[in-house]
């Protein structure tokens, strides 16, 4: 058997020309054997190469053009609890309206830059810029041609203190402060790219479809596991975005740490589950994913101290904000199930076709703002929006 040395893996690579050699590779080094077997799938190799170039460009933009301000550079009181509550409000509004979560992440970036560059001087400015940031982010990251967000709906959220002219004027000022750079790579964007590096079980069997007797069940299992990982990771990213102590960590590492946390969560669920057939990742899939992340995304979960620190921070943060059960059992693809925020409660009469949701926050001076949103029974679009002070 022929052997060649390689500098990348600092080990010996065995020629896999025969099936017996392939089994020997897998038994001796599962990570290396996985990479060799995966190279047989040309489509998968092309996808990995495309992901590598995309991630390189995104990480370059993340560290240069769209570098986020540090939490120590955000003046009081526009950090800490104020920032957490306003970003949570953004996520609440986006999720209840079935909009893209990346819009809230981008809006938080706009808001942080506006605070850092002195565009905000008062609490009223903070509220106005927050509304404008979300309005602008929905234009950039959502589908305005398909789901039109009326400006009047945002004006109603201002409790009559804001007008459409105020938002339009602030939108122009915000764009100038951002330097017309409106497409920051969010943690959601990195998550989407990282999920393409997650291998499916069918790749372990190469290109021979006869090895797996039930390809349909295997594909369903792969999709279910991928959706669960995505949902848990999205929840972790949301919690990290709302807290300013994560601003010092690049969003690329936050997204990777969220996936690692999701994988660990599924492993624990599988360990304590009475059913061994529940969807989960195999050891081969986890090892292959870690190998791809190290060589494609240049992120090593074992030697990168920032990744390890971020995983620990996510664990502490989510300890106080447990993962909703809907993140694990939800079957809707590509989104979190609608959930009530931790400080929300339902009020009003039991309408037959309408549902009331209340989000309450404290503006720091003891004057809370209550937002009441009533939706149709299909929950597709807001039927009525009211804003009240108490």
TrEMBL record:
Keywords attached to this entry: Cyclin
Domain Cyclin-like: 88-176
Entry annotated with the keyword Transferase: no
Family matches, as Pfam families: Cyclin_N
InterPro entries assigned: Cyclin, Cyclin-like_dom, Cyclin_N
PANTHER family: CYCLINS
Family according to the record: Belongs to the cyclin family.
Protein name listed in UniProt: Cyclin-like protein
Protein's organism: Nitzschia inconspicua
